[in-house]
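Internal tracking record. Fields below are filled automatically when a chain is submitted to the structure queue. Please do not edit lines marked as system-generated. If the sequence contains nonstandard residues, flag them in the REMARKS field before resubmitting.
Queue: standard
Priority: normal
Entity type: single polypeptide chain
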Amino acid sequence: MEKRFMTIFRLVIMALAFVALAVFMILHICAGLETQTSKLYLGLYILLMGWAAVRVFSLAKDLLKKQ
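SYSTEM-GENERATED OUTPUT FOLLOWS
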């Protein structure tokens, strides 16, 4: 039961991280992408969002498989 609780907790944290990264990325785009560093940060946001999405998918799959 405790392992299931921790899986749900991790799932919620990763989903929040995904949403936060999306919001920060949108704010970053609205501020402008004039410099190379800004474009690099945008790429990093996209990579981190991909990682968070994969973690959310794998945790949800793991949680649903155990039921």
